[in-house]
Each structure stands twice: as C-alpha cells, then as structure tokens.
Write a structure and sequence with these properties.
- By secondary structure, the protein is of the alpha+beta class.
- Among the domains are: 1-71 and 592-629, no CATH class; 317-399 and 448-497, no CATH class.
- It contains 13 helices and 20 strands.
- The protein has helices spanning 6-30, 74-104, 113-129, 134-195, 201-217, 301-310, 385-391, 407-429, 449-452, 503-507, 528-534, 551-588, 592-625; strands spanning 40-46, 50-51, 58-59, 63-70, 220-228, 236-246, 249-253, 256-257, 260-264, 280-284, 318-324, 328-332, 348-352, 355-367, 372-379, 395-398, 444-446, 458-467, 473-482, 499-501.
- The relative contact order is 0.13.
C-alpha cells in the first residue's frame, strides 16, 4: 500500500508541474514579438497509478510533465510556403513592370515618344512651306535627332534595368546558398538534442523561418522522415531525415547541402540581340549542371527575375531544319513575317533535336515581300555526317524561349518600329537630291554600324529572278550574308541603342533631300519628298498593323496589361497570405490575452498544490506530535 507520506509526493508533483507551466508561459510572453517563434506548451499526463492491496485496487500518484513542445501545424506551413512563392513571383514582377511603365510613360514631367514624334512632323510640316530655309531645316534635323536620342536613352534604361536584375539574381543565389547551409547546421543540432530525449523547439522555429524566407525566392518542398532503428524498427530514435527541394531539385539532404553558382554567358550564348554582356545562368556548383530557374509550375522571385530579364514573348526564331552539313544548318518554315523582326544576336546558340550548337555567322533569303524564307547558320564547330543527317526535319529555335513580355521583348519592339520607320524614311530620301543637286544617302543610320561590321558585315544579292508579262526581268528574292570582306546597308544592325542621323546631314542641313532630281529644276522650294515623308506619321503601315503614331499605344497597352495583371495577383495573394497567416497564428502564435489567462490558471493550480502540502503538513504534525501510545 502507499506510504503514510505519499500525499506529499502527489502534491509536490502538482507543484512542480504548475511551476513548469508558469515558466513556459513566461517564455511565451517574453517571445511574443520574436519573429518565427511558436507557442510552447507543457504536455502533462497522469503519473502511473500505484497498485495497492485494498478494495480500490490502485491509487493515483499525481501528475507528470512529459515534455515541452511547440504548437505548429505542417499543413498550414506548406500552405503558407506555396502562397509565398506565388506572392514573391508577382510582387517582384510588379516592381520591375512599374519601372518599365515609368520609362514609357508620358506626363508633364516626362517628355515621351508622342510629344517628340509629333514635334518632328510639325517641324517637317514647317519645312514643307520653306524647304530652302536653313533655320527651318536645322529645326527639323534637330527634332529628328531628338527622336533617335529618345530611343537611345530608353534602350539604355532598359539595359541598366536588365543589368540590375542580373545582379539581383546573383544576390538571390547567395541567399539560397546561405539558407541551405544554415538549414543543414540546424538539422544536426536538432537531431543531437532530440536523440537525447529533448525537443529543440527554438531551433525548429529558426529552421521554419529560413524555409519561409526561401519560399519567397523559389518554389519549396520539404520532407521530414523519422530515422528507424534497423535492428528494432518500432524503436523511436528521436532523429529525422530532413529534405529540402527547390524547383523540384534537391537542395538539402539532412546534414549535406548543395550550392548554386552563377555563370556568365559567353559571347556565343546570347539569346537576344539587345542583351547586355555577362548575363548570368545558374548552375549547380558541384557538377556545373544547369539549374532550372523557370519551371513551368511554381513561382518565386527568382523566376520573376529571369522572366523579366530574358522574356522575349516566344518571339525568338522557331523553324524546321531543312538540310544540314558539317559546317552549316539551313532552316525553313520560319515564324517571321518580315526581315526587320530579326532579334537574334550576331553570334549565339541554336537548339535542335535536344542539342545545342553555336554559330558565328548566318545568311538568310527573302521573297519579294521581304518575308524570310530560309536561313543558313555557320557553325562554330563541325558536326559529323550522321549528326547532320539526323537533324533534317527536326524542330529548331534560336536562343532561349521565354513566354513573357520582358526587357528583350520591349527592346525588340523598339527595334522593329525604328527599322520599319527608318527604312521607309530612307527609301524616300534616297530617291531625292540635296540642295546642291547631289544624290541623297540614308538619313537614319546606326551610329556604331562600323564597329558592328568589323567581323560581321552584310551583303545583299539577288537570289532568284523571273520575268513579267512583257518579258522584263524582275527580282523575286534576296540573300543577305555576313561577310567580313564586304559591306552594305542592312537594317538588322539598326537598334534602339544605336539609331541616329547621318553625321554629314547633322553637320550640314543642306544635305537633306526635299525633292527628286526630276523636280530639282523647280528650285530650292520644291518639297514633293516632304509630302511623302509626312505620310509616315500615321498613314503608312509601320508598326503592328498601324501607323508610326500608334507605337506608344501598342507598347503601353502591353506594359499596362502585364502590370495590372501583376497588381491584381499580388493583391489576391496578399489577401490569401493574410488569411493563411491568421490560421497559422491561431495555432502557433502567442496571444497575450491567452497567456495572461494561462498565468492565472497555472498560478491557481500552483496555489492549490501548495495548499495540499500545507494540509498534509498539518495532518502529519497531528499524527507525529499529538498521537502517541
């Protein structure tokens, strides 16, 4: 049967347990503002009953504080991580798209395309009335130069933003590596504590907080599996395997972790013509294999950065391999409607049949409407005959394929507008003569065309001829080829970054054609070419089925749609985050009012246990001092 003094043991167990509960409540209150802290509770159970040889059989032995654990629900953690990935993706996109929108926006403090474009044609209209007036001619030439400088500056801003995103990608990689290292260290510390029978609550909170941070950058999946004793599978070891996956690829394996590294693209790995040098790709440091930063599902800030930095809206070249030889690959069935849509770099990579090939030059053929009918790429390294034969009929693309309207897309849209506009403008100008009666050359040119053409100049030749009904020979196609020994004008080399007006015309306003040689005898006031040039303002089809004045409307519509989409989804995921956070905190969060009530509850329990000891003290005092034989 139980000892005479057994009551003290029972009361003391209640006293000790209440003390542990009060201490744990004090710890919760102290960490009420600690980020990532989870509410801790003392888990209590009734102590094992004592068998006694009496009619009631057993008697209670008090209470036992079994463990102190955190209150956390993995279900809400996973919901939170998934939402954070989507929220990080759209928040980061919105941040960049707002900047791009500001670049193209026109307001009182920002003179934009429409103002400059209209100003140029107003100056042209003035010149129509006085084509021989040197002051009027200079005003027009100045406004035309201002238009090219607008595109130069806009292209520079987009390139600077691309460079800024590139640097931020490296920072994100460093953050991922830092989290991976810290999680692996925490895994070891947690297992050491919990194998000894404890519960590493604070360390688990730190680890979960790191996963919270990681989930904003990339898509995260976490698995924790108990370690089994191979000799006794039912035995609890206390240790766990902890795995972390990002974008479906393993980052952490308990105590081991993989690291990522950034690798600058070489000159032959550019995807788009206007890309800056040194763009980063992400690889695994251990083997150099490419890390998939833009999975088809999921999100995260890293994916948003790559899409905005590399997004070409699927408008890189897609085609079919026609023929291939040891040094060349020829393609047909291109997705181009005109030559000016070309957005490929001078040197780069092509992909076909799941293989990458580098090229250092190319040529293309067009039909009479300017549509590209075929292209031939000069390979950097020869391929075998078997490989060449196997490529025929395979799908083909140039560079990477990013289905988002990012910086390369807007750069290419500006290039496309300028090429179409400058080509039509120059065609009219080249048909005329200047004030001295000399043949007029191109008015709009690429200011660094000479630099671009040192190794890659373009020659233009007829590729096929036919005859009309009268038997006269007509050209139905052209071939453009890069050749270091020849030069000729090509609008592929003209971009928003290098467009300008010819230096000779800029220095001497007389070198600008307002009339043709046939009408030159009419004198310096002849302006028949100016009349044709004015049609380019809105009447000629120059950009996406509309006139030149529709350029900004089209571009701004693209930007606005993407920006509004980001704003809408950001708001939606912020609302979801608020809802999930409330559900999460309802379980793991520390509530001051709840802790205050717990303090009162545990204090009362402590006082009652103390009262029990006081009562037993009086009983034993009576028994020992006042009861005797």
């Amino acid at each position: 049967m139980a000892s005479t003094f057994f009551g003290l043991t029972i009361a003391s167990s209640g006293l000790n347990t209440s003390q542990a509960q009060i201490n744990t409540t004090a710890n919760n209150i102290s960490n009420v503002n600690t980020e990532g802290y989870s509410k801790q509770v003392v888990n209590t159970v009734a102590s094992s009953a004592l068998r006694c040889y009496a009619s009631w059989g057993t008697t209670g032995t008090g209470v036992e504080a079994q463990s102190v654990t955190q209150r956390r629900d993995l279900y809400y953690d996973e919901k939170y991580w998934n939402n954070q990935t989507s929220l990080g993706f759209y928040t980061k996109k919105e941040y960049y798209m707002n900047q791009i929108q500001d670049y193209f926006n026109e307001n009182n403090s920002n003179t934009g395309f429409t103002t400059i474009y209209t100003k140029m044609f107003n100056a042209m209209s003035t010149m129509q009335g006085s084509p021989g007036d040197d002051t009027v001619r200079k005003q027009f030439i100045s406004s035309a130069k201002q238009l090219t400088e607008y595109f130069n500056q806009l292209s520079t801003k987009l390139s600077d933003l691309q460079n800024s995103i590139n640097d931020e990608i490296k920072t994100a990689v460093d953050d991922i590596n830092s989290v991976a290292e810290k999680v692996a260290i925490l895994n070891k510390q947690i297992n050491v504590i919990e194998q000894g029978g404890g519960h590493a609550n604070e360390l688990r909170d730190q680890r979960a907080l790191l996963i919270d941070k990681l989930s904003e950058i990339v898509d995260v999946d976490v698995k924790e599996v108990d370690v089994k004793n191979s000799n006794n599978p039912d035995m609890y070891t206390g240790a766990t395997y902890y795995y972390v996956y990002i974008n479906g690829q393993q980052l952490v394996d308990t105590y081991e972790y993989n690291t990522l590294a950034v690798k600058s693209r070489s000159n032959e790995q550019y995807f788009n013509q206007s890309d800056i040098e040194g763009l980063y790709d992400i690889v695994w440091a251990k083997d150099g294999d490419k890390f998939n930063a833009t999975p088809s599902t999921g999100g995260g800030e890293l994916k948003a950065m790559f899409e905005v930095r590399d997004g070409n809206n699927n408008e890189n070249i897609h085609a079919t391999v026609s023929t291939a030889s040891a040094n060349t690959i020829t393609i047909t069935n291109l997705n181009l409607t005109e030559v000016n849509e070309l957005n490929m770099p001078l040197k780069g990579q092509i992909q076909t049949n799941n293989k990458l090939f580098s090229y250092n030059g190319f040529s293309f053929e067009t039909d009479s409407n300017g549509k590209v009918t075929s292209m031939t790429f000069n390979l950097t390294e020869p391929i075998s005959n078997d490989t060449a034969t196997s490529l025929a009929g395979k799908s083909f693309q140039v560079g990477d394929d990013v289905d988002y309207m990012g910086i390369p897309y807007y750069q290419n849209q500006m290039n496309l507008f300028l090429r179409n506009f400058c080509e039509q403008f120059n065609l009219i100008e080249e048909s005329g003569v200047d004030l001295d009666g000399n043949d007029m050359g191109a008015f709009f040119v690429a200011k660094d065309k000479i630099d671009l053409s040192v190794e890659h100049d373009m020659t233009e030749t007829k590729t096929d001829t036919s005859t009309d009904a009268s038997g006269n020979e007509i050209s139905v196609g052209k071939t453009f080829t890069y050749d270091a020994d020849n030069t000729s004008e090509t609008y592929y080399l003209l971009t928003a970054a290098n467009a300008t007006i010819a230096k000779a015309t800029d220095k001497d306003s007389r070198i600008f054609a307002t009339t043709t040689a046939e009408n030159y005898t009419s004198g310096v006031d002849a302006a028949d070419l100016v009349v044709q040039l004015q049609k380019l303002q809105s009447k000629e089809n120059l950009f996406r089925g509309g006139g030149g004045d529709a350029f900004l409307q089209c571009i701004y519509a693209d930007i606005t749609v993407d920006t509004q989409e980001c704003q809408i989804f950001t708001k939606n995921f912020e609302n979801i985050q608020t809802s999930i956070s409330k559900q999460r905190m309802s379980i793991s969060g520390v509530d001051e009012d709840e802790e205050a009530l717990d303090l009162v509850k545990f204090q009362n329990a402590y006082n009652l246990a103390s009262k029990c000891i006081s009562v037993f003290s009086e009983i034993y005092d009576r028994l020992i001092l006042n009861t005797g034989v």
